[in-house]
Automatic annotation (TrEMBL):
Location(s), subcellular: Membrane
Annotated coiled-coil segments of the chain: none
Protein name: Rhomboid-like protein 14, mitochondrial
UniProt topology in membrane: Multi-pass membrane protein
Protein species of origin: Camelina sativa (False flax)
PANTHER family in UniProt: RHOMBOID PROTEIN 2, RHOMBOID-RELATED PROTEIN
Record-annotated RanBP2-type domain positions: 274-303
Membrane-crossing segments per the record: 116-135, 147-167, 187-217
Protein family according to the UniProt entry: Belongs to the peptidase S54 family.
Amino acid sequence: MANFGEGRRSGGGGMLPLLALSAVAEYYRLPWKPPVTASLLAANTLVYLRPALIDPVIPHISEVWFNPHLIFKHKDLKRLFLSAFYHVNEPHLVYNMMSLLWKGIKLETSMGSTEFASMVFALIGMSQGVTLLLAKSLLFFCDYERAYYNEYAVGFSGVLFALKVVLNSQAEDYTTVYGILVPTKYAAWAELVLVQMFVPNASFLGHLGGILAGILYMKLKGSYSGSDPVTMAVRGVTRLVTWPLRFLNGMVRSRRRRITGRGRVGRGQTGIAGPGIWRCQSCTYDNSGWLSACEMCGSGRARGNGWSLNQGPALSSSNDLPIDELRRRRVERFS
């Protein structure tokens, strides 16, 4: 998250094309394209760009700044949840989205889209809620009002810190954070301190709230053996929304499997199965058992012509039609 002092939509030197190029290149090399991560990238970018088509329905950034005082005073849940999707300038957006691209792909690929979506939804609420409680606690216990309780902040970085905690929770190796070697499990804590040193206008409380939200999420997930209620809700909504597509797909598949009386021309029996299919001995066309004459050449299904593929040959035919006669019958049949 970024404080108000970081500026409002100042120039970023054309960094958005770099973000688009990185996202396209990353998704192009993946055999499976994580849809939730792509949707989050698109949502954050569209909110920042505010295209004319959706501009009237997107609240202005002044209406959604995360401000604990205003949230408690007006019970403004819009500021609590929507502020995570707003960014003050182009570098702020691009830095967060590049981080989301890497973390989102790794987590969604390993967890699945439904569980990943439910986790992001939960972490947005938890990180924002923990930050709000931290600001209120500092005011109540320490009378620390100016720095945090009246602070204005926006950005997705609080959620990103929570995702970093989840991603590294089981890691046993080491990683580098801004050139400093630290245990991967504690990389989020090192980044919290270093980001605050290099970017003083960053929201320390928002980032801390994200880390604590990630730890709390992992504790709750570890202590709860059943299905995650949020995951179940997301899965139910997904199934409801995609039901028409699944219904149409099922109809198309059942229609393809249905036997329509059309056969195949060929001399081998490999891979052909099914009751009531007979092969014409004149042209080797496979016909439905409901037909009494060959669909290809018109020869009748007599004892000497055709066999059931499930029963083997009945009687071999010793009077195959001449090629000229076979061609003539085919022309008459389909002309």
